[in-house]
Structure formats: C-alpha cells, structure tokens
Predict the 3D structure of the following.
Amino acid sequence: MSTLTPKIASELADAVYQVRQPDRTGNYALEINPGLQKAFNIEPKKNLVVGETGGFFGLYTKKSGFAVIGEGQNRFRKDTVIAVRGSKTDADYLTNFDVGISTATNNQSVHSGFEETFSSMRPIMEKKLQARMHQLRGEHTIHCVGHSLGGALASLIADWVKARFQTQVKLYTFGAPRVGLNGYALTNTARIDNHYRCTHGADPVPLVPVWPFIHAPTEGAGEYRLDGAESISFTAHSMGINGTPGYRNTAMADDWSELKRQSKRFLNQPVRLRHEDRLQASFTNYWSEKLNAALITLLKDAGYYSALAIQNTMSSALTFYDRLARSLEKIAEASTKFAEQTAGLLGHMLVFAGKAAVTVTKLTYQFIRWVFETTIGALNKCVKKALEAL
Amino acid sequence: MTHHRTVASWRRLSLIPLLMATSYFLYSSEVMADMFGWFKRYDVHLSPEVKGRILEDGEPIADVDVYRELIYAEHYMEKTVTDSEGRFSFPEKTIRSREPGKLLGVEHITQSITADHGQKTYLLWRTTSTSTTPERVIVEKLNHMECDLSNAETLHHFTIAEHPNFTHNVRGICRWQDS
C-alpha cells in the first residue's frame, strides 16, 4: 500500500486550482511538474470533474472544474488520486454563524454546505471511479487530496469512497476547516486508512467552524504542523510557492517522517480560567485551542458536557449555541465557583476577540450568547476575508 | 476574588449590548480592513510583453489570429494578427486588484496564448503561476517565441529563477533555441 509523499500531495492540492476556468476553446489548464507527471496521469481532457457555478435561478451558470481524478503510473500503478479545490460558495457556508448541519453518507452530522457541494459532485465521480475500479482489480488505494475547502470536500469524498468501493483510502489535507461533529470525526478516523492533516500555526481556516465541530483524526498525532508560527495571519493559508510560508514550500519533503507532528495540546486536559488573568489571552491559534478546552472543562465540571455533546437533533450551529448559552447561564447560577469559572472563560473570550474593554457583568443568557457570537464572529471575519475570492 | 456587578434594570438596558455589538462590529471591521489592507488595490502583473513568430514548416505565416487569455479573479482576452513576417506581440499586462489584500484571495494566474489557423486552434503557450510580480524565465521565454505549427504540443519544465526548487510547467508548440 503506497503513500503519496508530502511533496506530491501538496503539488496536487496546488495544481487542481488550474482547472477552475476553461480558456476560449473550452480547454482546461493543468500543467504539472515532472515528478507528478511521472506518478499520475491527470490530463484534464479525460479526468476532470466539472460542476456548474454562479448565476441567479440557474441562469448564466458557467462550467467550472472542481476536481481531477488521476490514474497512477509506475510505482503508483495500483493507485488513484482525487484532488479537489474549494469554491467561493463554500466560503460563505463556512463563515456563517448559523452553520447548517446535515447527515453525511456515514450517517453522521456534518456541515450542510460541504455536504451539498459534495452531493453535486458525487454522481460524476462515482461514474469515473467505477470505470477505474473495473479496470483495476485487487489491491487498490485511493488518495484524496485538497487545500482549504477542497480539503473539507476531500474528507467527505474519502469517507464515501471507503464505504462505496472498499479499497484502501488515504486522506491528505492542507489548511482544511473542520467538517463535522464528534460522530463524524470518530467514524472518519476509524474508516480512513491514513490521515495526513497539514496545518500552519498561523492559518485561521483550520480553527473553524468552532466547537462542536471537531477535526479528524481524533486519535494520535494526526496533525502535521508544518511551521512554528502562532499569531493568526491570513497569508499563512496560501497554498502556492509564493505564499508566506506557502504549503508547497513547507511540505517539500519526500517522507512524512521528516515533518513535525503536533500533538493535541489540550486534549483531555482540564483548563480553568480566572477572570483576572484574562489579559493574557490573544488572537492566536494557541488561545483558540485553549478557550475550546476551557469551555469543555467547564461543561464537564458542571455535568452538562455529555448532554450537549451528543445532540443529534440539532439542525444548526445557531440552535447549538443557543442551548450552550442557556446551559452556561444555569451553570453560573448553580454556584459562585461555577459563576467565576464562567466569567473567567467569557473574559478570556472577549480579550481573544479584541474586546478587552467589555466587562463581564451579569451572566445572563443574552450576554453569554453575545460573547459567543462576538468571539466566533472575530474568527469568522478573519476567515471570511481569507477565503473571499477562492 | 472577582465581583460581578449586578445590573438591576437589565431588561431596560438589554439594548446596550446589542448596540455595542453593532458599533464594535462596524468599528473593528473598518479598522481591521484598513490594517490588513482589504480595501486597498495592488499591482498584479499578469503577463510580461509577448513577442513571437508563427511559422509553418519554417515559413512565416501572415494573418493568423493570435489570442492571449489571462485568468485571475477575472478572465481577460486580447486578440492580434500576425504581420507579413509572421510576427505578433502583446503588451505587458498589469492590473490593479484587491485580491492580494485579501491575502488569501485568488492565488493562481493562468496565461494562455492560442492561434487559429485554418480549421485548427494551436496552443502556443499555457502556464499557471502564483507570482504577482514578473518572473525572469517567463519574461525571457515570452519575449522570443518561435511557434512552428508543425511542432507537437510539449510540456516544458523550466527551473524557476526565483525558486530554484520548483519548475515553471509550460505547455505548447513553441520552442526556444536555448532549451
């Protein structure tokens, strides 16, 4: 069973952006370098997955390439790659506070926007993959690759491919957002044979959508943190070689063992924050993770965690935050200790969101909900700008 | 120990956080926009000057329609016609764009140069880059293109002068004496 090198995986994730628009003759660009050319045949004439974008009420829609399916050659002759790019429409889904939640092919809750885009691509992908499976019998690996929103789609594709074709499936993502809730992350972790989730410390996109969305893989050190930066900056999301630092540059390795793995810093570690320490918070990846852990700790301390985490009836993230704010109001009313812990969390969240001037006064449902909206809003605003024109 | 001030008339004051939220949102988004340059326009170099010659089995051909398409956030297309010596050219193309200020806006620029002769369309040059400034090798190659319509389309790989670990991947029928 072969694995794509970080170099080849990042080249594919970058190259698939070329097919976004055809030229006047209807041809799509896809010029790749010698290494990738030797490994996979991804000539767009045969292997392009085209979708329709834009237009009001279906008028003026234009054709646009979303993914390429590549047939392996030489040492990858028993392999197939699916490289996916993100689209602007998904950017709107991603940064909407009222994230819709729908059911993926594995019966788990995922982001409805991603699921919708994936569903539109599925029939053509199924047809192409079926032909490929027919041609190749026996041992076979499908590699799913994508940057940004293309990474989120690659995750859904990988999950579906594993169930549909019963082959080996490997997933490689660069700066991808979270795709689903806990159930999806667990199923996805268990199903996919190898998972290479690459991030930059300063890339804001992997930080959204916020909890209850969870990254897969949930176990082990599945995250490859390709640089040492911490302070959130949109340039860190770039894929190309001219980016700062640019995933093509940081993933220039021939083996995954050469790249640094990031263990989950706050996984299962209790984090309790005191209101007077709130000015230590900053708009960084570190604090985004720490606030997440502090919220989970508070819910666990107060015995509300399991009830909230296993919500299956939830229709959107908005209803989730509504319930969360109501729960926190009750928690704060329960004891002085919990009130302080809640105030500590909210105070840090406000500083994180650049609202240090706001004092935490009464811990009401309205106020708590506003703090969540503000914090998530700060992250979303950053991400929205970052993704605006993909 | 922290004391949480009780606001007695909370209900009447409930508009305050709403107003605060609105004003903070407007204020901070403007400040942030300015700070990160989201509203600024930047120079984006889409193509250097293009100069070339169209031949058929070594003989120059006149009156061939040549198109240059540049695909970035938008699609730009220009057309020219070869002269009696088969020569064609396009000027340098630089646009003002907000994309680089979005920083993660559109990254990829595709250049495509095609020619129509008889019933056929020939691909002279196509490549994609993420650089918003001129790249040395691309400038050199586009400055003297020898395009014989009898050549087969090839995928050329030229080392990127500014990033020697990577290659420009160029497809087309053009050839250069030095490569």
Observations:
- Residues 54-60 of chain A have pLDDT under 50 and may be disordered.
- The longest helix of chain A spans residues 112-135.
